[in-house]
Amino acid sequence: MLILDDLLLRALGVSVPGLDFVSTLELLENLAYKELYNPENIKNQIKENQMLYEFGEISKYEFEDTKSRLIEQLKFIERFEEMNLSVRADILT
Amino acid sequence: MSKDGESGRYVYCIIKAQEEKISFGNIGFQGKEVYTTKYKEFSPVLSDIIFKKFDVEDEEDVKTHSNVINEVMKEHSVIPVAYGMVFKNKKLVEMSMKYGYKAMKKAMKIVDNRVELGVKVILPKDFDRNEQKLDQCKSEFTERLKQVSFDSKNLILFSERLLMNASFLVEADKVQTFSDEVEQLRSKYDSFKFQYSGPWSPYNFVDIHILSKQKGGFR
């Protein structure tokens, strides 16, 4: 069974406007995910939280609370990356 | 490297020493003795350890690692080794010393009798940013501090509030001069918040990778 998907069509030099639009949406979604789930961003937020605490701008409670939330997020992202969940697998081809 | 439960050698840093063995007391991981062995003019500072995973989030372990280095730094110039470096046996430590010898010689020339000092400057909350003025301030900070240091490294500005995040390599006998300069800047720009820290071992000025597939190896 041969399933024509957007990648195959594109390889053949065929552009289907509807599929192109879906593909663009997927690309944008991926970029948004990458931005939202970028471990470097979370690491920077952890450092910022530490810095604000050291400068006395947030309380110990706020510091600990934010820190544990960010570490949870970071662990989640690392697990997410290990499992490679953002990669779509075509199981019908 | 080693597996959980096996014994190994944890390396904290490298120093230059004449003695066959120096003991720094039982200040290492698991309360073990921190001591040196010898390879030519260099001595790795290590302790015996039952291997376990070293996680950067484990504050106690990170603290033990830095406490040992701080203790060693009181008497010696150090080439820092990345946190969590465990070798299976003495032979592997010697092998890494052999392969890293040239790089260590070069690194020691850079760090000998020098320490790392850190300066962070943050902007007040809700600061009305004028990028041109901020750039001028940043240049002034950098230039003035560069004049009283041997080398400097700009580090990541991980927060929008950070105006400057830099490390400076300073001659051990010029730390006071450097501190005075920081103090003068602090007085001149009293609306900014300064964080002046150190002396640290010069992590930002030495980067040796030995016997490691990835960058997280012996460095």
Give the structure's gist in a few sentences.
The complex is a heterodimer of chains A (93) and B (219). By secondary structure, chain A is mainly alpha-helical.
Question: Could you walk me through the main structural features you see in this protein, from its secondary elements to its overall organization?
Answer:
The complex is a heterodimer of chains A (93) and B (219). Helices cover 71% and strands 0% of the residues of chain A. By secondary structure, chain A is mostly helical. Chain A has 2 domains: 1-28, no CATH class; 37-93, no CATH class. In chain A, helix 3 (39-54) runs antiparallel to helix 4 (60-83). Chain A is elongated, with a radius of gyration of 20 Å. Chain A starts with 5 loop residues before the first helix and ends in a 10-residue tail after the last helix. Chain B is 31% helix and 26% strand. Chain B contains 4 helices and 9 strands, in the order βββαββαβαββαβ. In chain B, a hairpin with a 7-residue loop joins strand 7 (151-154) and strand 8 (162-171). Residues 214-219 of chain B have low confidence and may be disordered. The A-B interface holds A 43-44, 47-48, 51-52, 54-55, 57, 71 and B 57, 120, 122, 125, 156, 158-159, 161-162, 193, 195. Chain B: InterPro entries: GvpL/GvpF. Chain B: It comes from Methanosarcina spelaei. Chain B: One of its GO terms (biological process) is gas vesicle organization.
